[in-house]
């Protein structure tokens, strides 16, 4: 079995240089990298990653927490993060919390037991005071979710703005009876701020929404179908609905068509995220720059781990974009 010394001899380089190439040291010329890689291939040499990680006292693994992987927003985010991490020599562990506080705390033990080098939270189920103690065991950062008490790097969008521009667009289209649909307006800062944006736009227009128009616990296409059924039964039906996701919006649209409603004449619909399904069916939506969010977050986390940087408050705020299509 070939050793690192054999690789160095065949490449005509020192063992130290070969080690630097294997460990992806930044200050190695492309020519030396080529010589080492060629020698490794010729000798069928495979570095012992476990031993390397033990020496470095790092797992080269980053955990990413999502509430629900079947949500296209989170699945796309995880895919981008995983690809970016791989390019920089790291691997990703996906932890699905299923909106469970206990599950989230259980996964935080991965950091405490040194099974991962860092955590990226895309949503928060617990109070920050319950998460904060785990910062003693390694870096934690937020992506998508945000919290004023969290003194950690955060990549986010101002969800008040997102809720505002979506609702304002419906008002500009002449609607005054606008329903609002989301997962849970109180569980996370993302959801509560988006709802604040909705209310802000209505207040500016002098519109007082009916409590009946506020619909929650909607996360999926099937939930969207249920939401439409609720809307159809209302005495004072809304003429438009702002949803917290393209998935839910697609479900509303599907059931509306089943009931022979015309979109947007009978009901205008606006989604959130700009997933592929939105473009496919012609759904007006609020685009979030998912790829940019994911790359920024993973890049920040890897830099913190590699350079042993202190975990402190650093906000990276990105922008929304209203994408107008035929549903409004």
Automatic annotation (TrEMBL):
One of the record's GO molecular function terms: DNA binding
Pfam families: LacI (PF00356), Peripla_BP_1 (PF00532)
Superkingdom field: Bacteria
Domain HTH lacI-type: 2-56
Gene3D superfamilies named among the record's database cross-references: 3.40.50.2300, lambda repressor-like DNA-binding domains (1.10.260.40)
Protein's UniProt keywords contain DNA-binding: yes
Keywords: DNA-binding, Transcription, Transcription regulation
The keyword ATP-binding belongs to this UniProt entry's keyword annotation: no
Name by which UniProt lists this protein: LacI family DNA-binding transcriptional regulator
Organism: Fictibacillus fluitans
């Amino acid at each position: 079995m070939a050793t690192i010394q054999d690789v160095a001899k065949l490449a005509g380089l020192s063992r130290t240089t070969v080690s630097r190439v294997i460990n992806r040291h930044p200050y190695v010329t492309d020519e030396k990298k080529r010589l080492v890689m060629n020698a490794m291939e010729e000798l069928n040499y495979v570095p012992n990653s476990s031993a390397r990680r033990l020496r470095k006292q790092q797992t080269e693994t980053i955990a990413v927490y999502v509430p629900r992987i079947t949500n296209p927003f989170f699945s796309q985010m995880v895919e981008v993060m995983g690809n970016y991490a791989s390019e920089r020599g790291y691997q990703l562990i996906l932890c699905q919390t299923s909106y469970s506080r206990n599950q989230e705390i259980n996964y935080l033990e991965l950091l405490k037991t040194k099974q991962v080098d860092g955590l990226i939270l895309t949503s928060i189920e617990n109070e920050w005071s319950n998460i904060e103690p785990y910062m003693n065991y390694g870096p934690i950062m937020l992506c998508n979710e945000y919290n004023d008490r969290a003194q950690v790097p955060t990549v986010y969008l101002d969800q008040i703005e997102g809720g505002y521009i979506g609702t304002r667009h419906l008002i500009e289209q002449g609607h005054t009876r606008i329903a609002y649909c989301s997962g849970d307006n109180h569980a996370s800062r993302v959801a509560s701020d988006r709802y604040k944006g909705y209310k802000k736009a209505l207040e500016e227009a002098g519109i007082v929404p009916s409590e009946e128009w506020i619909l929650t616990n909607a996360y999926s296409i099937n939930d969207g179908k249920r939401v439409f059924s609720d809307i159809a039964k209302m005495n004072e039906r809304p003429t438009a609905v702002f949803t917290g996701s393209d998935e839910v919006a697609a479900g509303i649209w599907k059931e509306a068509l089943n009931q022979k409603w015309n979109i947007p004449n009978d009901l205008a619909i606006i989604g959130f995220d700009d997933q592929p399904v939105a473009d496919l069916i012609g759904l007006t939506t609020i685009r979030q720059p998912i790829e940019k969010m994911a790359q920024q977050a993973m890049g920040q986390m890897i830099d913190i781990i590699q350079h042993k940087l202190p975990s402190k408050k650093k906000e990276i705020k990105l922008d929304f974009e209203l994408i107008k299509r035929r549903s409004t």
